[in-house]
Design goal:
Length: 494
Amino acid sequence: MVDKLRRKTLAQMSGQLKGKGLVPSLGWPHLVALGIGGIIGTGIYTLIGTAADKAGPAVLLAFIIAGIVCTCAAFAYAELATMIPVAGGAYTYTYTACGEILAWAVGWSTIFGFLLVASVVASGWSAYCSPYFVHLFSTLGIDLPYWALHVYGSVDAASGAHGFINLPAVVVVFIVAGFLLLGTRESALVNAVLVVLKVGALLLFAAVALCYFNSENMHPVNADGTQGFMPYGFFKEFTADGVERGVMAAAAAVFFAFYGFDTVATAAEETKNPERNLSIGIIGSLMGCILIYIFVSLAAVGAMPFTEFAHQGDVLAFVLRRLDNDWAAGIIAIIAGLALPTVILAFFYAQTRLLFTMGRDRLVPAGFAKIGESGTLIGTIIFTAVLMALIAGFFPIAKIADYANAGPLFTFAMVSVCLLILRRQYPMAPRAFKVPYVWFVGITGILGCAYLFWNLPNETRLGFLGWNILGFAVYFAYGRRKSIFARAGGRQAG
Protein backbone atom coordinates (compact mmCIF):
# COMPACT_ATOMS: atom_id res chain seq x y z
CA MET A 1 0.00 0.00 0.00
CA VAL A 2 1.34 3.41 -1.01
CA ASP A 3 1.60 5.99 1.77
CA LYS A 4 0.74 9.30 0.13
CA LEU A 5 2.61 11.18 2.87
CA ARG A 6 5.70 9.03 2.23
CA ARG A 7 6.04 8.03 5.87
CA LYS A 8 8.56 5.46 7.03
CA THR A 9 7.41 2.68 9.32
CA LEU A 10 9.27 1.65 12.46
CA ALA A 11 10.22 -1.61 10.73
CA GLN A 12 11.74 0.31 7.83
CA MET A 13 13.66 2.52 10.25
CA SER A 14 15.07 -0.55 11.98
CA GLY A 15 16.05 -1.98 8.61
CA GLN A 16 18.24 1.06 7.93
CA LEU A 17 20.48 0.11 10.84
CA LYS A 18 21.62 -3.09 9.16
CA GLY A 19 25.02 -2.61 7.60
CA LYS A 20 24.95 1.11 8.26
CA GLY A 21 28.72 1.38 8.72
CA LEU A 22 28.72 3.81 11.69
CA VAL A 23 30.41 2.17 14.65
CA PRO A 24 28.75 2.39 18.11
CA SER A 25 31.47 3.81 20.38
CA LEU A 26 29.80 6.36 22.67
CA GLY A 27 28.57 5.80 26.23
CA TRP A 28 26.35 8.07 28.29
CA PRO A 29 29.25 10.18 29.67
CA HIS A 30 30.27 11.01 26.09
CA LEU A 31 26.67 11.95 25.27
CA VAL A 32 26.23 14.14 28.34
CA ALA A 33 29.49 15.89 27.48
CA LEU A 34 28.37 16.29 23.85
CA GLY A 35 25.10 17.86 25.00
CA ILE A 36 26.69 20.19 27.56
CA GLY A 37 29.42 21.05 25.07
CA GLY A 38 26.74 22.08 22.58
CA ILE A 39 24.59 24.00 25.06
CA ILE A 40 27.11 26.05 27.04
CA GLY A 41 28.76 28.50 24.68
CA THR A 42 28.90 32.21 23.98
CA GLY A 43 25.24 32.44 24.99
CA ILE A 44 25.84 32.35 28.73
CA TYR A 45 28.72 34.84 28.43
CA THR A 46 26.81 37.39 26.35
CA LEU A 47 23.07 36.74 26.62
CA ILE A 48 22.84 37.49 30.35
CA GLY A 49 23.49 41.13 29.49
CA THR A 50 21.06 41.16 26.56
CA ALA A 51 18.34 39.42 28.57
CA ALA A 52 18.89 41.61 31.64
CA ASP A 53 18.38 44.68 29.46
CA LYS A 54 15.00 43.22 28.46
CA ALA A 55 13.84 41.84 31.81
CA GLY A 56 16.00 43.27 34.61
CA PRO A 57 16.56 40.88 37.55
CA ALA A 58 13.63 38.84 36.20
CA VAL A 59 16.15 37.45 33.73
CA LEU A 60 16.06 34.53 36.18
CA LEU A 61 12.45 33.89 35.14
CA ALA A 62 13.43 34.17 31.49
CA PHE A 63 15.98 31.38 31.90
CA ILE A 64 13.47 29.26 33.83
CA ILE A 65 10.71 29.72 31.20
CA ALA A 66 13.04 28.93 28.30
CA GLY A 67 14.34 25.97 30.29
CA ILE A 68 10.81 24.62 30.87
CA VAL A 69 10.01 24.79 27.14
CA CYS A 70 13.29 23.05 26.34
CA THR A 71 12.62 20.42 29.00
CA CYS A 72 9.35 19.48 27.29
CA ALA A 73 11.22 19.17 24.01
CA ALA A 74 14.02 17.19 25.69
CA PHE A 75 11.53 14.69 27.11
CA ALA A 76 10.06 14.26 23.63
CA TYR A 77 13.54 13.78 22.15
CA ALA A 78 14.41 11.22 24.83
CA GLU A 79 11.35 9.07 24.13
CA LEU A 80 11.68 9.25 20.35
CA ALA A 81 15.45 8.70 20.34
CA THR A 82 15.15 5.50 22.39
CA MET A 83 12.17 4.38 20.30
CA ILE A 84 13.86 5.15 16.95
CA PRO A 85 17.65 4.98 17.56
CA VAL A 86 18.51 6.19 14.05
CA ALA A 87 20.75 9.15 13.19
CA GLY A 88 19.08 12.36 12.09
CA GLY A 89 17.22 13.38 15.25
CA ALA A 90 14.09 15.46 14.61
CA TYR A 91 14.28 14.87 10.87
CA THR A 92 14.12 11.10 11.40
CA TYR A 93 11.18 11.27 13.83
CA THR A 94 9.22 13.57 11.50
CA TYR A 95 9.79 11.20 8.58
CA THR A 96 8.07 8.46 10.58
CA ALA A 97 5.26 10.53 12.10
CA CYS A 98 4.42 13.11 9.44
CA GLY A 99 5.99 12.06 6.15
CA GLU A 100 8.65 13.20 3.77
CA ILE A 101 7.71 16.81 3.04
CA LEU A 102 7.55 17.83 6.70
CA ALA A 103 10.68 15.79 7.39
CA TRP A 104 12.40 17.84 4.70
CA ALA A 105 11.17 21.09 6.32
CA VAL A 106 12.51 19.96 9.70
CA GLY A 107 15.81 18.78 8.22
CA TRP A 108 16.25 22.00 6.24
CA SER A 109 15.41 24.12 9.31
CA THR A 110 17.79 22.08 11.46
CA ILE A 111 20.58 22.60 8.93
CA PHE A 112 19.80 26.32 9.22
CA GLY A 113 20.06 26.19 13.01
CA PHE A 114 23.16 24.00 13.25
CA LEU A 115 25.10 26.05 10.70
CA LEU A 116 24.22 29.38 12.26
CA VAL A 117 24.92 28.37 15.86
CA ALA A 118 28.31 26.92 15.00
CA SER A 119 29.15 29.99 12.93
CA VAL A 120 28.03 32.36 15.71
CA VAL A 121 30.27 30.56 18.19
CA ALA A 122 33.22 30.58 15.78
CA SER A 123 32.76 34.34 15.30
CA GLY A 124 32.31 34.83 19.05
CA TRP A 125 35.44 32.82 19.77
CA SER A 126 37.35 34.99 17.31
CA ALA A 127 36.13 38.20 18.94
CA TYR A 128 37.07 36.75 22.32
CA CYS A 129 40.55 35.59 21.34
CA SER A 130 41.67 38.00 18.59
CA PRO A 131 43.15 40.56 21.03
CA TYR A 132 45.34 37.80 22.48
CA PHE A 133 46.43 36.73 19.00
CA VAL A 134 47.29 40.32 18.11
CA HIS A 135 49.36 40.68 21.26
CA LEU A 136 51.11 37.33 20.76
CA PHE A 137 52.08 38.02 17.16
CA SER A 138 53.15 41.58 17.97
CA THR A 139 55.69 40.20 20.48
CA LEU A 140 57.09 38.18 17.57
CA GLY A 141 57.34 41.31 15.44
CA ILE A 142 54.29 40.46 13.31
CA ASP A 143 51.41 42.91 13.00
CA LEU A 144 48.19 41.17 12.06
CA PRO A 145 46.29 43.34 9.54
CA TYR A 146 42.79 44.58 10.28
CA TRP A 147 41.40 43.03 7.09
CA ALA A 148 42.37 39.52 8.27
CA LEU A 149 40.59 39.82 11.63
CA HIS A 150 37.26 41.38 10.67
CA VAL A 151 34.47 40.51 8.28
CA TYR A 152 33.84 42.29 5.01
CA GLY A 153 32.08 45.62 5.52
CA SER A 154 33.58 46.44 8.92
CA VAL A 155 35.65 49.61 9.26
CA ASP A 156 38.14 50.65 11.94
CA ALA A 157 37.04 54.07 13.19
CA ALA A 158 40.58 55.08 14.16
CA SER A 159 42.55 54.08 11.05
CA GLY A 160 39.83 53.75 8.43
CA ALA A 161 41.01 50.21 7.63
CA HIS A 162 38.46 47.89 6.05
CA GLY A 163 37.80 44.30 7.05
CA PHE A 164 37.68 41.44 4.58
CA ILE A 165 37.68 38.08 6.40
CA ASN A 166 37.56 36.84 9.99
CA LEU A 167 40.48 34.43 9.70
CA PRO A 168 40.52 33.25 13.35
CA ALA A 169 36.90 32.09 12.96
CA VAL A 170 37.81 30.24 9.78
CA VAL A 171 40.82 28.63 11.43
CA VAL A 172 38.90 27.35 14.46
CA VAL A 173 36.26 25.77 12.21
CA PHE A 174 38.92 23.78 10.37
CA ILE A 175 40.66 22.80 13.63
CA VAL A 176 37.36 21.32 14.85
CA ALA A 177 36.94 19.59 11.49
CA GLY A 178 40.36 18.04 12.00
CA PHE A 179 39.30 16.55 15.33
CA LEU A 180 36.18 15.05 13.75
CA LEU A 181 38.27 13.54 10.97
CA LEU A 182 40.31 11.71 13.62
CA GLY A 183 37.21 9.74 14.62
CA THR A 184 34.07 9.96 16.72
CA ARG A 185 35.44 8.50 19.94
CA GLU A 186 38.68 10.50 19.80
CA SER A 187 36.87 13.81 19.27
CA ALA A 188 34.36 12.88 22.02
CA LEU A 189 37.19 12.37 24.53
CA VAL A 190 38.73 15.77 23.72
CA ASN A 191 35.28 17.34 23.99
CA ALA A 192 34.67 15.74 27.42
CA VAL A 193 37.90 17.16 28.87
CA LEU A 194 37.14 20.68 27.58
CA VAL A 195 33.55 20.51 28.86
CA VAL A 196 34.79 19.77 32.39
CA LEU A 197 37.00 22.88 32.19
CA LYS A 198 34.13 24.99 30.85
CA VAL A 199 31.70 23.98 33.59
CA GLY A 200 34.41 24.55 36.19
CA ALA A 201 34.91 28.12 34.92
CA LEU A 202 31.21 28.94 35.23
CA LEU A 203 31.06 27.51 38.75
CA LEU A 204 34.13 29.59 39.65
CA PHE A 205 32.35 32.74 38.44
CA ALA A 206 29.24 31.92 40.46
CA ALA A 207 31.22 31.14 43.61
CA VAL A 208 33.13 34.44 43.42
CA ALA A 209 30.17 36.64 42.42
CA LEU A 210 27.84 35.22 45.06
CA CYS A 211 30.24 36.48 47.72
CA TYR A 212 29.14 40.01 46.70
CA PHE A 213 25.41 39.24 46.55
CA ASN A 214 23.22 42.23 47.46
CA SER A 215 19.49 41.61 47.72
CA GLU A 216 18.78 45.24 46.78
CA ASN A 217 20.01 44.49 43.27
CA MET A 218 17.09 42.09 42.88
CA HIS A 219 14.57 44.93 43.35
CA PRO A 220 15.97 47.94 41.47
CA VAL A 221 14.34 51.37 41.51
CA ASN A 222 12.16 51.79 38.42
CA ALA A 223 11.73 54.91 36.37
CA ASP A 224 8.58 55.86 38.29
CA GLY A 225 10.38 55.58 41.62
CA THR A 226 8.94 52.20 42.59
CA GLN A 227 10.94 49.05 43.16
CA GLY A 228 10.30 45.81 41.33
CA PHE A 229 11.73 42.46 40.36
CA MET A 230 10.20 42.85 36.86
CA PRO A 231 10.86 46.49 35.91
CA TYR A 232 9.63 45.96 32.33
CA GLY A 233 6.71 43.62 33.01
CA PHE A 234 6.10 40.04 31.98
CA PHE A 235 4.77 40.15 28.43
CA LYS A 236 6.69 41.54 25.48
CA GLU A 237 6.10 45.19 24.71
CA PHE A 238 8.02 48.14 23.28
CA THR A 239 9.37 50.57 25.85
CA ALA A 240 9.82 54.31 25.32
CA ASP A 241 13.25 53.83 23.74
CA GLY A 242 11.77 51.51 21.11
CA VAL A 243 13.33 48.31 22.50
CA GLU A 244 11.31 45.10 22.93
CA ARG A 245 11.31 44.33 26.64
CA GLY A 246 9.60 42.08 29.14
CA VAL A 247 10.28 38.64 30.61
CA MET A 248 8.93 36.82 27.54
CA ALA A 249 11.05 38.90 25.17
CA ALA A 250 14.07 37.94 27.28
CA ALA A 251 13.00 34.28 27.29
CA ALA A 252 12.91 34.27 23.48
CA ALA A 253 16.42 35.78 23.47
CA VAL A 254 17.97 33.33 25.95
CA PHE A 255 16.44 30.31 24.21
CA PHE A 256 19.58 30.35 22.07
CA ALA A 257 21.60 29.52 25.20
CA PHE A 258 19.72 26.21 25.66
CA TYR A 259 19.98 24.97 22.11
CA GLY A 260 22.34 21.99 21.80
CA PHE A 261 20.91 19.04 23.75
CA ASP A 262 19.29 17.84 20.53
CA THR A 263 22.74 17.17 19.06
CA VAL A 264 22.80 14.07 21.26
CA ALA A 265 19.91 12.53 19.29
CA THR A 266 21.92 12.69 16.06
CA ALA A 267 24.48 10.34 17.66
CA ALA A 268 21.94 7.51 17.96
CA GLU A 269 23.67 5.12 15.55
CA GLU A 270 27.05 5.60 17.23
CA THR A 271 25.75 5.06 20.77
CA LYS A 272 26.29 1.87 22.73
CA ASN A 273 23.06 0.67 24.36
CA PRO A 274 21.05 3.58 22.84
CA GLU A 275 17.82 2.55 24.57
CA ARG A 276 19.40 3.55 27.88
CA ASN A 277 22.17 6.01 27.09
CA LEU A 278 20.36 8.39 24.73
CA SER A 279 17.76 9.46 27.31
CA ILE A 280 20.49 9.96 29.92
CA GLY A 281 22.53 12.05 27.49
CA ILE A 282 19.63 14.25 26.34
CA ILE A 283 17.91 14.92 29.65
CA GLY A 284 21.07 14.87 31.77
CA SER A 285 22.86 17.49 29.68
CA LEU A 286 19.86 19.86 29.63
CA MET A 287 19.06 19.55 33.35
CA GLY A 288 22.67 20.21 34.24
CA CYS A 289 22.81 23.32 32.05
CA ILE A 290 19.50 24.73 33.36
CA LEU A 291 20.85 24.58 36.92
CA ILE A 292 24.16 26.14 35.88
CA TYR A 293 22.42 28.97 33.98
CA ILE A 294 20.12 29.85 36.87
CA PHE A 295 23.06 29.74 39.29
CA VAL A 296 25.24 31.97 37.08
CA SER A 297 22.50 34.50 36.25
CA LEU A 298 21.54 34.76 39.94
CA ALA A 299 25.17 35.45 40.82
CA ALA A 300 25.48 38.12 38.09
CA VAL A 301 22.31 40.11 38.85
CA GLY A 302 22.89 39.79 42.60
CA ALA A 303 26.46 41.05 42.47
CA MET A 304 25.69 44.42 40.84
CA PRO A 305 22.77 46.40 39.35
CA PHE A 306 21.78 44.89 36.02
CA THR A 307 21.98 48.28 34.28
CA GLU A 308 25.77 48.25 34.72
CA PHE A 309 26.34 45.13 32.62
CA ALA A 310 23.25 45.13 30.39
CA HIS A 311 25.18 46.19 27.28
CA GLN A 312 28.48 44.41 27.93
CA GLY A 313 29.75 41.82 25.46
CA ASP A 314 31.36 39.50 28.02
CA VAL A 315 29.25 39.91 31.14
CA LEU A 316 31.07 37.39 33.31
CA ALA A 317 34.51 38.95 32.84
CA PHE A 318 33.05 42.46 33.23
CA VAL A 319 31.35 41.61 36.54
CA LEU A 320 34.47 40.00 37.97
CA ARG A 321 36.70 42.92 36.99
CA ARG A 322 34.27 45.41 38.52
CA LEU A 323 34.43 43.31 41.68
CA ASP A 324 38.26 43.59 41.61
CA ASN A 325 38.75 39.90 40.87
CA ASP A 326 40.96 40.16 37.81
CA TRP A 327 42.56 36.81 38.60
CA ALA A 328 39.22 35.01 38.30
CA ALA A 329 38.33 36.96 35.17
CA GLY A 330 41.66 35.92 33.64
CA ILE A 331 41.14 32.23 34.44
CA ILE A 332 37.64 32.26 32.96
CA ALA A 333 38.87 34.07 29.85
CA ILE A 334 41.58 31.46 29.25
CA ILE A 335 39.22 28.54 29.78
CA ALA A 336 36.56 30.13 27.57
CA GLY A 337 39.10 30.50 24.77
CA LEU A 338 40.06 26.84 25.11
CA ALA A 339 36.59 25.37 25.64
CA LEU A 340 34.19 27.41 23.48
CA PRO A 341 35.13 25.33 20.40
CA THR A 342 33.29 22.40 22.05
CA VAL A 343 30.08 24.11 20.91
CA ILE A 344 31.33 24.17 17.35
CA LEU A 345 32.30 20.51 17.66
CA ALA A 346 28.85 19.46 18.92
CA PHE A 347 26.91 21.25 16.19
CA PHE A 348 29.47 20.35 13.52
CA TYR A 349 29.14 16.68 14.50
CA ALA A 350 25.33 16.87 14.51
CA GLN A 351 25.28 18.59 11.13
CA THR A 352 27.34 15.87 9.49
CA ARG A 353 25.10 13.12 10.94
CA LEU A 354 21.99 14.92 9.71
CA LEU A 355 23.43 15.28 6.20
CA PHE A 356 24.47 11.61 6.36
CA THR A 357 20.89 10.55 7.11
CA MET A 358 19.35 12.84 4.48
CA GLY A 359 21.90 11.60 1.96
CA ARG A 360 20.99 7.99 2.79
CA ASP A 361 17.38 8.93 2.04
CA ARG A 362 18.56 10.61 -1.19
CA LEU A 363 16.86 13.91 -0.30
CA VAL A 364 20.32 15.42 -0.70
CA PRO A 365 23.09 13.92 -2.88
CA ALA A 366 24.07 10.39 -1.84
CA GLY A 367 27.69 11.47 -1.46
CA PHE A 368 26.82 12.91 1.95
CA ALA A 369 26.17 9.35 3.16
CA LYS A 370 29.52 8.00 1.96
CA ILE A 371 31.68 6.65 4.78
CA GLY A 372 35.45 6.74 4.31
CA GLU A 373 37.82 3.85 4.94
CA SER A 374 38.57 5.22 8.41
CA GLY A 375 34.87 5.05 9.30
CA THR A 376 34.40 8.84 9.21
CA LEU A 377 32.26 10.98 6.90
CA ILE A 378 35.25 12.64 5.25
CA GLY A 379 33.45 14.38 2.38
CA THR A 380 30.55 15.55 4.55
CA ILE A 381 32.92 16.91 7.21
CA ILE A 382 34.95 18.88 4.64
CA PHE A 383 31.82 20.25 2.95
CA THR A 384 30.38 21.35 6.30
CA ALA A 385 33.68 22.96 7.31
CA VAL A 386 33.81 25.02 4.12
CA LEU A 387 30.20 26.18 4.54
CA MET A 388 30.65 27.11 8.20
CA ALA A 389 33.93 28.87 7.47
CA LEU A 390 32.30 31.00 4.75
CA ILE A 391 29.50 32.09 7.09
CA ALA A 392 31.75 32.76 10.08
CA GLY A 393 34.47 34.35 7.96
CA PHE A 394 32.40 36.83 5.97
CA PHE A 395 29.17 37.63 7.87
CA PRO A 396 28.80 39.85 10.97
CA ILE A 397 28.07 37.89 14.15
CA ALA A 398 25.09 40.10 15.03
CA LYS A 399 23.41 39.29 11.71
CA ILE A 400 24.08 35.58 12.17
CA ALA A 401 22.87 35.46 15.77
CA ASP A 402 19.61 37.23 14.94
CA TYR A 403 18.44 34.21 12.93
CA ALA A 404 19.80 31.41 15.10
CA ASN A 405 16.70 30.97 17.30
CA ALA A 406 14.02 30.45 14.64
CA GLY A 407 15.06 27.01 13.35
CA PRO A 408 15.36 25.35 16.78
CA LEU A 409 11.95 26.62 17.91
CA PHE A 410 10.27 25.16 14.83
CA THR A 411 12.20 21.90 15.18
CA PHE A 412 11.41 21.48 18.88
CA ALA A 413 7.72 22.12 18.25
CA MET A 414 7.70 19.46 15.52
CA VAL A 415 9.39 16.92 17.81
CA SER A 416 6.58 17.48 20.33
CA VAL A 417 4.05 16.97 17.51
CA CYS A 418 5.81 13.73 16.53
CA LEU A 419 5.73 12.54 20.15
CA LEU A 420 1.93 12.81 20.26
CA ILE A 421 1.38 11.33 16.78
CA LEU A 422 3.59 8.30 17.39
CA ARG A 423 1.95 7.64 20.76
CA ARG A 424 -1.34 7.25 18.85
CA GLN A 425 0.18 5.57 15.77
CA TYR A 426 2.37 3.04 17.62
CA PRO A 427 0.90 2.76 21.14
CA MET A 428 2.48 -0.66 21.82
CA ALA A 429 5.95 0.04 20.42
CA PRO A 430 8.81 -0.52 22.92
CA ARG A 431 9.88 2.71 24.63
CA ALA A 432 12.88 2.53 26.94
CA PHE A 433 12.01 6.04 28.14
CA LYS A 434 8.37 7.09 28.29
CA VAL A 435 7.33 10.71 28.78
CA PRO A 436 5.03 11.13 31.81
CA TYR A 437 1.82 13.12 31.26
CA VAL A 438 2.54 12.98 27.57
CA TRP A 439 -0.30 15.20 26.34
CA PHE A 440 0.51 17.94 28.85
CA VAL A 441 4.22 17.80 28.02
CA GLY A 442 3.65 17.62 24.27
CA ILE A 443 1.13 20.46 24.08
CA THR A 444 3.21 22.62 26.44
CA GLY A 445 6.23 22.07 24.19
CA ILE A 446 4.28 23.00 21.07
CA LEU A 447 2.59 26.09 22.51
CA GLY A 448 5.74 27.22 24.34
CA CYS A 449 7.85 27.07 21.18
CA ALA A 450 5.11 28.80 19.16
CA TYR A 451 4.86 31.62 21.68
CA LEU A 452 8.63 32.12 21.88
CA PHE A 453 8.78 32.09 18.06
CA TRP A 454 6.15 34.84 18.01
CA ASN A 455 8.30 36.85 20.43
CA LEU A 456 11.27 36.79 18.06
CA PRO A 457 12.01 39.97 16.06
CA ASN A 458 10.02 40.32 12.82
CA GLU A 459 13.21 40.26 10.75
CA THR A 460 14.14 36.88 12.24
CA ARG A 461 10.76 35.34 11.42
CA LEU A 462 10.85 36.68 7.87
CA GLY A 463 14.39 35.40 7.37
CA PHE A 464 13.34 31.95 8.55
CA LEU A 465 10.37 32.02 6.14
CA GLY A 466 12.67 32.99 3.29
CA TRP A 467 15.07 30.14 4.10
CA ASN A 468 12.22 27.63 4.02
CA ILE A 469 10.82 28.98 0.75
CA LEU A 470 14.28 28.31 -0.71
CA GLY A 471 14.24 24.89 0.94
CA PHE A 472 10.95 23.84 -0.62
CA ALA A 473 12.22 24.98 -4.01
CA VAL A 474 15.20 22.65 -3.55
CA TYR A 475 12.95 19.82 -2.37
CA PHE A 476 10.57 19.93 -5.33
CA ALA A 477 13.39 20.48 -7.83
CA TYR A 478 15.64 17.71 -6.47
CA GLY A 479 14.73 15.89 -3.26
CA ARG A 480 11.21 14.74 -4.09
CA ARG A 481 12.27 13.28 -7.45
CA LYS A 482 15.44 11.62 -6.12
CA SER A 483 14.34 10.32 -2.72
CA ILE A 484 14.17 6.62 -1.94
CA PHE A 485 10.38 6.84 -2.02
CA ALA A 486 10.46 8.11 -5.60
CA ARG A 487 12.95 5.40 -6.56
CA ALA A 488 10.72 2.69 -5.05
CA GLY A 489 7.53 4.03 -6.64
CA GLY A 490 6.17 5.25 -3.30
CA ARG A 491 7.36 2.29 -1.20
CA GLN A 492 10.31 2.87 1.10
CA ALA A 493 12.97 0.32 0.31
CA GLY A 494 14.64 0.39 3.72
